[in-house]
Every structure is written in structure tokens, then in C-alpha cells.
Amino acid sequence: MMKKYFIICIFLLSAMSANAQREGTWWHFGYNVGFDFTEVFNGNATYPKAICNAPLRQGEGVFSISDKNGNWLMSSDGKYVYTPGSIKGATFPLPTNSADGDFSINKNNILFGNSSATQSGIMCPVPGEPSLYYIFTIDDKQSNPRKGINYSIIDLAANNGIGELVTGKINKSVTYGYQKNSLTERYTAANVMENITLTPSSDGNYWLVSIFGSHFHAWKVTKDGVSDTPVLSLSSYEFASTTSSNSYRGGLGHIRISADGTRIAYAIDQASNTTPVGVFGTAFFNNSTGEVTSSKHATKNIAAYGVEFSPSNEWLYLTNMGSAGFIKFSDLANGSMNNYRNMITTGEFNAVMGPKGIMYMIVRGSSTLYTIDDPNNPDTAVPANTYKAHPNFFACGGASVYPFNGLPNFMPSFFLVKALTGPTELCTGAEGEFIFEAEQGTSGYGAEYIEWDMGDNTKYYTGDHPLADPSTKPWPTDNLHKIKHTYTSSGIKTIRTNPYSSNGLMPDKEVTLNITVKDCVTYIYINPHLRAKIIQ
């Protein structure tokens, strides 16, 4: 009698929660202006739509954040926080007789930031708490008394979804480390300059980073709060105290961390009232330990203000009080500004990377938007060809609505693999579904599409690729890339997923999954007592 077998393939797919991808959809800055990147993320536009009725009206530091689907959550100038619920019924710009903080959630509980600080603050989610966000603030160097770096927590679900600051978690000062060559004298708020940034840590938390005095300062940020012991790393440049009464600019400027969390760049003004001294520096960052190494700097007699990385991290774009230009990271890392190239010399500029690898520049008081459409390839021969002007971009709001010095301070994020899942066994002729979960990376630094190699000379594409299924374009909002495939031959198959950015294949990001494909033979059980011999 023939033996009877059933081969059963059980498919186990793991479900992973997806993190936000479109946090940078809405930008609010300047005097009631901003950007709406919704159609850019949807693949229907190259540039954002201008906003001319944003709630913020200030000169410099601002920060905004949206949810994973691109819905605006909140914006702040470091003092007041505005949410969709708080501004209902308001028409911006507000009348000139309006009080500071009208239509904010905290008019009577002001945060310790300052809209005159270069980077007045930055936001990030509290790990594991969907409705809670950290708000980190930094004050202007001329504030008296100085407040330094502080943090608060906002609950966006509270007050019927309008949002409110969490009691007991408002304006909490960070703990400062010890000054150079001292085991007793700590830094204080008076030493702090106007720069602050965030970057993801290797364990799923964050690092809060600033430079002042003789050190880079890095605080670990987790769901439990901010570390009491910052990681201190020596800077190649020792910055003067920012309390000097003879300088209105000394201490202003930006710090940035590259989207892959490995490099730091800064542009800090150490000027007196009459003599500009721009300090431009680079370093390498360890997002596992918070340590900063290989600190280098160079100075130039220009009024330093802003700095931004190209998506490739090869180029730095520097904005100053009167000009903007670029230099290779490697040149500045050698302590030299010799190869710096001015590309524009009229106006006070600021620049921030946006979606799809395009950098955005604004000029104080101008309705013209400037874009750098290919920041990985500036024109070193004719630097002015590097940017493109968009006249009257902000003309939608009238004479009182225009950019000033500030652009939003975002936490850059990078392409991050979560999982490649699917059946480990499959029958020939049977369809299997495979899921690749990955965070794209914001601000134009991340992946554009995923190439799938199924191990049998078949390739698929998901994301923003001409051959990709339209349902996956430009990037799945839930970060789940899904394909279905049927194998026609048995054996061990190795599935490979490779991400591609605007620069091409992203190295060292390949993920593999081995699957056993079998020729499954199904036998039908026949009662042996039946007289009819169906199977010979």
C-alpha cells in the first residue's frame, strides 16, 4: 500500500510598526510664511506650495513637525506652541493689536526659548509614547537672565486634541558637564550659544547635541528623560562666553548632524560689533556613544550663520550675513577655507535640505525663493549656476508677509532597515508575499526606491521607480514594501533587497532572506476498503 503524505507550507509574516516619514511636510517660518510639501511627497510636484497664513511671526529660530502621513501637528518659535486645534478661528497674520501668544496652547506658560535665537528649539517624539513629544529650547545669548537649554513635554491628545504641556515637565534644564580641565566648575546657561540639534541614536533613542565653550555636548534622550551626564568631546576651537556686552552677534549660528548620523558641521559667528569672525568646523559623530572626534575648524572674515549638508555629505553649504556659498566637507575637515566658493552675495541667507534632494534658501525680507536642485553637484566653475531663483514665490500674502532669517530646525533621519519577512518555505507554483519594512529617511537624504532580486533572475521595484507598481509610489506611507512572487523551480532561493537613493545604490544596506522552494506532491487518501482501484 502506498504511503500518504501532505506537505503543508505555513507562512508566518511578522508585523512591525512603522515610524513617521513625512514629518517635514509643513514648514512655518518668518512672518507668517511657510511651505506645504504635500504634493511633492505625493509625486505630483517638484517644489512646495507657498503658505502665507502660517501662525508664526518671528525673525529667526523656528521648528515644526508633522505626523507620518504629513498632517501638521505643531509649530513653535521657542516660546509659544501652535497646533491645529489652538488656531481654529484665527486668521493670520493677526491684527497688530494682538497679544503675544494669542492662539497658542501656552500663552500663559511661556517656554524658555527665544525667536531671536538662531536655532531656538527642536522637537522629537517621546519613544514609545504616540501622543507625547519633547520640545527642546535654547534662548538668545542676550537674554537676561540666561535660560540656556531646557526641555518640555507636550501631550497632543490632551485638552480634546488641542494639546497641552505636561505638568511637571515644563522648562526643565539640562544638566551641564564640567568645563575644560576642571572637576568642580560646570558649564552654566551663560556659556550656551544659540545652536542645538537632534539625531537618532543607534538604539532607537536620540542624541541632543550643542557646541559651546571648549566642548561638543551630547545628551542621551529616552522615554525616561534626558541624561544627567552629557558626553563631552573637545572642540578644536574654544568659543568665548556669549555674555560679552560688546558683541551682538558673537555666539549665533547653526550646528548640523548629517542624515546618517556620522558627521557634524557648524557655522558660528564670533564677531564683535564691527569685525566679522566666522568659525566653520567639522567633526565625526558616534551615534552609539555620543562621542565627537576629529574636530577641525577654519575661520574667515565673514559673518557666519548657517550650514547644511548635501545629501551625499560631500558638500557643505554655508550661509552668511550677506552671502552664501559651498565647500567640500573634506576641505573644511582639513582646516581650510581656501576652496570655499561664493555663489550669491546679496542678502542674508539661510538654507535647509528639503524632500527629494532639493535644498531651499530664503533671503531676509525677500519674496524670492532660491533652490539648489542638485546640491550634490555644485558648479565650481560658475558658482552662481548652482542655485535657481523663483521670484515672487512668497507674494501671496502681501507686503507684511515674508521670510526673515530663520528656517525650521528639523531632526534629520536616515534610511533605516526594519525587517525583511516572508515564508521560509514555499511550494513551486504557489504564490508567496514578501514584506520589506524600512524608513525612507527625511529631508531628501534617504532612499528613493527598493530593488528586489528574487534569486531566480526575477527583479521587482517598489518606491519611486518607473517599473514600480503604482501603489508603492513614491514611497509606501506605512513603510511596508510588499511584493508577491511565484517560483517555478525548487531549491534554496536568496531574496535580496537593495535601496537606491538619488546618488545610486546605497552601500552596505543590502538585506537578504533565504527561502526553501519545494516541489510539493499532494496525494489523495483513498479508503483501502473501496473495491474500485482508482490509483494503480
From TrEMBL:
Signal among keywords: yes
Signal peptide: 1-20
Protein name in UniProt: PKD domain-containing protein
Residues passing through the membrane, by range: none
Domain of life from the UniProt record: Bacteria
Assigned keywords, A-Z: Signal
UniProt xrefs under InterPro entries: Quino_amine_DH_bsu, WD40/YVTN_repeat-like_dom_sf
